[in-house]
């Protein structure tokens, strides 16, 4: 295997090897299948799970790279139940361990944790259990710090090893070993001691995000020799990805029309931004005779369970949910996931939309992309270090008109995507070339000068104010200095987004005790616009994609500089009224 490449890791063993390990005629296969159904209550394996389990049961060292939510944990939890002794699980965060322990408890699997907050009695009981032939627990979760610092733990591990009770070592989030990964944790560097002391115990490292160079590094740090790497491709070929613009305030009607039309009698999820949105949109859909219920973090646990149950059994068709609706959803026949508001990152979007089509039958993932939503989310993620960058990537995904949607997702999984493989399963590939390239230099100069002028007068402008001023609807005092545009609202919004994504504008946050405001300020590249040779082009959608309000565009003036999107001019939207409204912590 070549090292140092930044490409996706390739399986280090052949297709036949993999096929062989996909078989179910190993000595443990019956038991494994039995526990899958009786304990985990799952009907079948997802891709690579069976192979991973068989390899690990055969005693091989293994790296498993699979997108989040695809079911990596099962690949060590299930073998743990089918092996003598216990499995040692290393996880980076106590909260991650607690999630897994809670889940294991709910399905009656004996699992324990040793961490800084364990009581003396608990620790004593657990350390004794490690060398008890009756194995009172099948999984022991510890932090890497514990391995590094507790000689007592190491001595018990050694004893268990000698007694043949240390069945397996699982290192969750294994990329944390490597400084080249995105989440390096120094204590992970010391985990090599495990394989050096206990060479006969098979190790499995799990991660959603590791390039082959990071995996090579992990291999060295963990002292495993020639592990087998299994990589699940990120691509979900049965999912159709589409982005629609919110070009009027009635886009919820568009969503209702879809649910009553194309998705009649089929189950789906509508993801919304806030708890309030969840309640409101559910009411709107019910008004249109759609069986919809909200789901969010502030609801009573019993109500949440009920909504989930009714949805699973098709008593209701749609759950209108915040991101709180996610954990433990394994309904297979979800035919659509509609985003009423964009997600805060592509990773989040991939995960949320990925709840569609788990039965491998075709399903649709549609995002409704609205200008003002960008700033609502932007202020929400203002505290996160990489929050703006991640949001910008999501916005770029929506704004994109010429690249396969999958290619933009692939970047996040370190994969190289060949657009031909999409098979018209995204709107861009299906409607190819439905855009025009515009020279927007003059427009950019005009709109940037609005912000520049305002700032020279010590005035801050929200994105909405910028739109309105540019379209000639601002306060009279500005009008003399503004070149009013004849572009449509959609075009105005698209151009402002483009300028934000490309550094001509940037975010200017302002905090009040109750809310965070978003203003536009000049970006690092805005000065370039003074330079007469500097030009900006952008690709803009030719058709207006919101289907119900727009007649088909049959012709357009292909003029580079004055290309215009034809179709109905969007109604002046009142829903744009409040800009950076109060951002409450009600988005789950
Ligand atoms: P990861 O660690 O890869 O992010 P998890 O192990 O936490 O993912 O699993 C995510 C979800 O997938 C869990 O709710 C789990 O129950 C579910 N899951 C795992 N394997 C299967 C399967 N074979 N069929 C259905 N659901 C599964
Ligand atoms: Mg996991
Ligand atoms: Zn495509």
From TrEMBL:
A GO-annotated cellular component: chromosome
InterPro entries: DEAD/DEAH_box_helicase_dom (IPR011545), DNA_helicase_ATP-dep_RecQ (IPR004589), Helicase_ATP-bd (IPR014001), Helicase_C-like (IPR001650), P-loop_NTPase (IPR027417), RecQ_Zn-bd (IPR032284), RQC_domain (IPR018982), WH-like_DNA-bd_sf (IPR036388)
Gene3D superfamilies named in the record: P-loop containing nucleotide triphosphate hydrolases (3.40.50.300), Winged helix-like DNA-binding domain superfamily/Winged helix DNA-binding domain (1.10.10.10)
Protein family according to the UniProt entry: Belongs to the helicase family. RecQ subfamily.
Localization annotation: Nucleus
Required cofactor names: Mg(2+); Mn(2+); Zn(2+)
Region called Disordered, residue ranges: 557-588
Official protein name in the record: ATP-dependent DNA helicase
GO biological process: DNA replication; double-strand break repair via homologous recombination
């Amino acid at each position: 295997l070549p090292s140092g490449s930044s490409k996706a890791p390739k399986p280090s063993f052949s297709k036949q090897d993999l096929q062989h390990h996909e078989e179910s005629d190993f000595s443990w296969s019956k038991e494994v299948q039995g526990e899958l159904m009786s304990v985990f209550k799952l009907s079948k394996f997802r891709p690579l799970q069976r192979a991973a389990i068989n390899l690990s049961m055969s005693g091989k060292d293994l790296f498993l790279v699979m997108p989040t939510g695809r079911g990596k944990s099962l690949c060590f939890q299930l073998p743990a139940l089918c092996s003598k002794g216990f499995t040692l699980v290393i996880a980076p965060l106590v909260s991650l361990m607690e999630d897994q322990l809670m889940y294991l408890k709910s399905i009656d699997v004996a699992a324990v944790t040793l961490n800084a907050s364990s009581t003396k009695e608990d620790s004593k009981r657990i350390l004794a259990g490690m060398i008890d032939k009756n194995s009172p627990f099948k999984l022991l979760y510890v932090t890497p710090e514990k391995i590094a610092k507790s000689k007592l733990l190491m001595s018990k591990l050694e004893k268990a090893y000698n007694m043949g009770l240390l069945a397996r070592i699982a290192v969750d989030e294994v990329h944390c070993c490597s400084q080249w990964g995105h989440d390096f944790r120094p204590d992970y560097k010391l985990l090599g001691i495990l394989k050096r002391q206990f060479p006969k115990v098979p190790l499995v490292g799990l991660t959603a995000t590791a390039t082959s160079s990071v995996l090579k590094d992990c291999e060295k740090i963990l002292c495993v020799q020639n592990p087998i790497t299994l990589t699940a491709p990120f691509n979900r070929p049965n999912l159709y990805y589409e982005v629609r613009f919110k070009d009027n305030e009635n886009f919820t009607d568009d969503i209702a029309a879809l649910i009553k039309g194309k998705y009649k009698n089929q189950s789906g999820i509508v993801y919304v931004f806030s708890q309030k949105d969840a309640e409101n949109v559910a009411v709107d859909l019910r008004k249109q005779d759609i069986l919809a219920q909200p789901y969010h973090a502030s609801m009573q646990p019993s109500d949440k369970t009920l909504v989930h149950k009714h949805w699973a059994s098709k008593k209701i068709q749609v759950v209108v949910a915040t991101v709180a609706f996610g954990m433990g959803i394994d309904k297979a026949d979800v035919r659509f996931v509609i985003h009423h508001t964009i997600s805060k990152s592509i990773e989040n979007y991939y995960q949320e939309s990925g709840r569609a089509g788990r039965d491998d039958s075709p399903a649709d993932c549609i995002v409704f992309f609205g200008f003002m939503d960008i700033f609502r989310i932007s202020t929400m993620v203002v505290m996160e270090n990489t929050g703006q960058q991640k949001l910008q990537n999501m916005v770029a995904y929506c704004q994109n008109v010429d690249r396969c949607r999958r290619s933009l997702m692939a970047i996040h999984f370190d994969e190289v995507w060949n657009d031909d493989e999409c098979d018209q399963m995204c709107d861009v590939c299906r409607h190819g070339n439905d855009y025009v390239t515009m020279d927007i230099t003059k427009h950019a100069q005009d709109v940037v000068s609005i912000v520049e002028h305002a700032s020279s007068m010590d005035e801050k402008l929200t994105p909405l104010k910028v739109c309105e001023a540019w379209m000639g609807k601002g306060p009279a005092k500005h009008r003399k200095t503004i070149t009013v545009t004849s572009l449509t609202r959609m075009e105005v919004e698209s151009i402002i987004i483009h300028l934000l994504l490309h550094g001509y504008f940037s975010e200017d946050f302002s905090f009040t005790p109750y809310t965070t405001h978003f203003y536009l300020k000049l970006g690092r590249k805005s000065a370039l616009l003074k330079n007469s040779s500097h030009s900006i082009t952008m690709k803009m959608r030719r058709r207006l994609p919101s289907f119900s309000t727009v007649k088909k565009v049959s012709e357009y003036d292909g003029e580079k500089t004055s290309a215009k999107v034809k179709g109905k001019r969007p109604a002046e939207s009142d829903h744009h009224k409040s800009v950076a409204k109060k951002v409450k912590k009600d988005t789950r």
